[in-house]
Design goal:
Elements lengths: L3 H25 L3 E6 L4 H11 L5 E6 L5 H7 L5 E6 H11 L3 E10 L2 E3 L14 E5 L2 H13 L4 E2 L12 E3 L5 E5 L4 H6 L4 E4 L1 H4 L11 E2 L8 E7 L6 H10 L2 H8 L7 E3 L9
Helix pairs in contact: 2-9
């Protein structure tokens, strides 16, 4: 037994070294990237990026159905990242879920605005008109800031990107605000709600584009750019840096510019220049 014990120790040490080498090799070979997304043109951007990503990396789109799944999947390491939200929305999820998500690559700014099945301009808006705005706080603030900039309401001067209906200090037209899930706002328009906030990729489903809006967001609102999001610990990893370069490629930029005729999106990056 005394002679066998040292041999046993050697075998255990060799096995441990073998496991370490296997884990190291697995880490080095971790070249497949899964990105969750749920709507156009974001899903198409991931698919184009997958076609041009540098070797040895590969990229896969995981389609999701709502505004919750992609963040939970990223936070739970079920996917490597998402391309579905702006940074403010991500920060809201972090606060609520105690998550550590970070935005690492801007994609585009969605040219959002208000549409109306009743009015042709904001000058026609009548007293007591119903206004459908997003029910999630970041997009609610975005909608209210547009109305504030247009003079339709006045927000408390200390209010910013956390604006809520309760922060309205002047409402001369007595607008009636109805919170609606982001993906149901187009249906609110079809139901005849007088003034409806909506994203261009969603309102396009019924043949409307920013040119049809009666009120658009200021073009300089870069804080609302959709972003590639991942966990903080993965942000500087080789695979996510490769994902950034692919999403900032000329090919992805060209995809966005194909939508230029409808002025739906404004790229938030220069082709070939990923964020630092």
């Amino acid at each position: 037994m005394e002679k066998l014990f040292p041999l046993f120790l050697v075998m255990m040490l060799l096995a441990a070294c073998g496991n370490d080498e296997e884990e190291s090799a697995a880490s080095e070979n971790d070249t497949h990237i899964v990105i969750a997304s749920q709507s156009e043109p974001l899903t198409s951007m991931v698919e184009v990026a997958a076609e041009v990503i540098e070797e040895p990396y590969t990229m896969e789109l995981l389609p999701v159905n709502d505004n919750i799944q992609y963040n939970e999947a990223t936070f739970n390491d079920e996917v490597d990242g998402s391309l579905s939200q702006h940074e403010l929305y991500m920060e809201g999820f972090n606060e609520e879920a105690g998550a550590d998500l970070v935005a690492i690559q801007p994609a585009y700014i969605s040219n959002v605005g208000f549409y109306s099945p009743v009015y042709d301009s904001i000058d026609e808006i009548e007293a007591g008109a119903e206004v459908a705005i997003p029910s999630d706080p970041p997009n609610e603030a975005r909608a209210l800031l547009i109305l504030d900039s247009a003079g339709l309401i006045t927000l408390d001067e200390d209010t910013g990107i956390d604006a809520a209906v309760s922060d309205i200090v002047e409402n001369p037209k007595d607008l009636q605000f109805t919170p609606v899930d982001l993906f149901n706002l187009t249906a609110a328009y079809e139901d005849g709600v007088e003034l409806v906030f909506e994203h261009p990729n969603l309102i396009a489903n019924i043949g409307l584009y920013p040119k049809d809006a009666i009120l658009l967001e200021d073009e300089d609102e870069k804080r609302f750019a959709f972003q590639l999001v991942t966990r903080e610990g993965k942000a500087d990893s080789p695979k996510m840096q490769a994902a950034k370069r692919a999403l900032a490629s000329q090919e992805v930029y060209d995809l966005l510019m194909e939508e230029a005729e409808h002025e739906m999106f404004t790229p938030a990056f220069e082709p070939g220049q990923p964020a630092e």
